[in-house]
Amino acid sequence: MxxxxxxxxxxxxxxxxxxAMGSNNSKTPEEIVDKFQSSWLDSTVYxxxxxxxxxxxHVDESPIHPRSVVVLDDIFCIFxxxxxxxxxxxxxxxxxxxxxxxxxVVEAYKVLRDRAPYPPDQxxxxxxxxxxxxxxxxxxxxxxxxRDREGSVEFQWGMAxxxxxxxxxxxxxxxxxxxxxRAAFPPGCIFMNGSGLxxxxxxxxxxxxxxxxxxxxxxxxxxxxxxxxxxxxxxxxTGSAANWADAAEVKGE
Length: 253
Hints:
The protein is α+β, with helices and mostly antiparallel strands. It is built from seven helices and 14 strands. Pfam families: DUF3700.
C-alpha cells in the first residue's frame, strides 16, 4: 500500500528529514505514485483532494496480514493486518457481522470526531491484533495513522522531495521515494496531523525522535520512542466535527 499527503495536510515530523540533510535523492509525490503503479499493475489509486493519494495492491499480500480499503462518508481507510477481537468490536459499535476491520476503525474514528471531547488514544487502545492503518477524512482534511503495539505489520513513513508525507508497508517504495528521509512508524503510536505522534498506551508522555549518528556526528537514521521521563500537560483532545474543520483550515493557511 501507499499513501502520500501534501506537506500542508500531512504535517510530517521534521525529524524525518535529518538523515537526508545535504542530500537530495528523494522523489516527487507524482514520481512515487507512478513508481507504485508501474510496479504493481493491479493497484488501485485514489486521488484525494489537495493532491493527496492513497493506493492499494494485493500482490505479495500476506495471508495473515491482508490489506483492505473502504470509503465511507468521504472517509478513506486502508487497513493492513487483522483484529483478534473483531466480534467484540462489531458488537460495541453496533455493526453487522459482515463489517471488516477497515469499517470498524472508521467507525471508531467517527466516534472521536463526532462525540468530543474524546482522547484519540481511546480509538486504538482497545484494538487487539496485528495491524497498521491510515484514515483520511476528506471533509475535514484530517489524517489518522496507527500501528499495533508490537509493530507486527511492516510500516514505514518518510518525506518526499517537496516535504510531503509518504507511508507504505513496502520498504523499497519508501527507500526509492524518500531516500534517507525515512523511518519505521513507531509501534504502539498514532499520528494525527493536528497533534502529532501520541503513544496510545502512554498518552501523557511525549514521543521523541532519537538520532543514530556515526563517529563523525553524521545522522544515519532516526527512530521514534516514548519518553517516559517527560510528560505533556494533558492528553491531546479534539473538539467537535466543526472544531476539526477549523483546525484543518488553520493548518492550510
